[in-house]
Amino acid sequence: MKECPACGRCFDRSDEVCPDDRSELSLTLPVERVLEDRYRLERVLGRGGMGIVYKARQKTLDRLVAIKVLAGERRNDPQFEARFSREARTLAKLSHPNIVAAIDVGESEGFYYFAMEFVDGESLKDVLIRDGKLPEKRALEITRAMASALEHAHEQNIVHRDIKPGNIMIEGSSGDPVILDFGLARADEGEFQTLTRTGDVFGTPAYMSPEQVLGEARRIDRRSDIYSLGATLYECLTARRPFEAPTQASTSYPSCSQ
To answer: CB of 230 within 8 A of CB of 196?
Structure first.
């Protein structure tokens, strides 16, 4: 449960942002102006390390979309601009019912953005927080769907590198899981090496494979995604993560020593 500092309204989801929270206006107002010919912003869906995600309506086709805009502090940073563009290009290579679809990408007046399919539902993370562990049949249904989606990505030589409950949306009407956030995905070896150095650590420690935790970039491949999916399945069945530690950096190290 989170309370908006502007109006006092309470939200069940920790990443939901009240449209009356004026702290978002420093970015939202210029984004609205830049995108007004094609999109109408409705509300903020959440924030991440790369940017802010808005629920919006695509005017030309009259449909709901999600638009990610590169965060203000990341603008004019060539490395983050490259990662942001790469996420859009990575999604454009994929076509699977359990992977969010890319719709549009662009830059205007210094604002980098891309639009993707809007998934109306809640994250698997929020489901687990609310309901606790899932029935075995349901946990396996979600895992099979995610495995199929990852297999499709791996066939395109794409490794997600950040599979976790927070990056899996459960669609409200169908209950189907959908993978989000390819911001850390590796699209190909050449581009990957220019953006990531050995020793860099990207991902979420509780779900990262040992080679990710240790920053061994050259060893990270599809097996790292399978490890993260296994950690996610474990949490679905037990309502707790497979490894816990006092600090994030040491969370996955127990698995390194076994």
So the answer is: no
pLDDT greater than 50 at residue 156: yes
What are the residue numbers of the active site?
A: 162
CA dist 227 and 162 (Å) reads 11
Q: And the tokens for 145?
A: 């769907």
Residue 68 CB contacts under 8 Å (≥ 6 apart), including other chains: 48, 50, 51, 52, 53, 54, 84, 87, 113, 114, 116
The predicted-structure confidence for 42-71, as pLDDT tens digits, reads as follows 989 887 767 789 999 999 999 999 998 886
Domain positions in the chain are 2-117, 121-256
CATH T-level fold of 2-117: Phosphorylase Kinase; domain 1 (3.30.200)
DSSP code string of 32-72 = HHHHTTTEEEEEEEEE-SSEEEEEEEETTTTEEEEEEEE-G
pTM for the model: 0.76
Question: CATH code for 121-256?
Answer: 1.10.510.10
Calculate the average pLDDT of the chain.
79
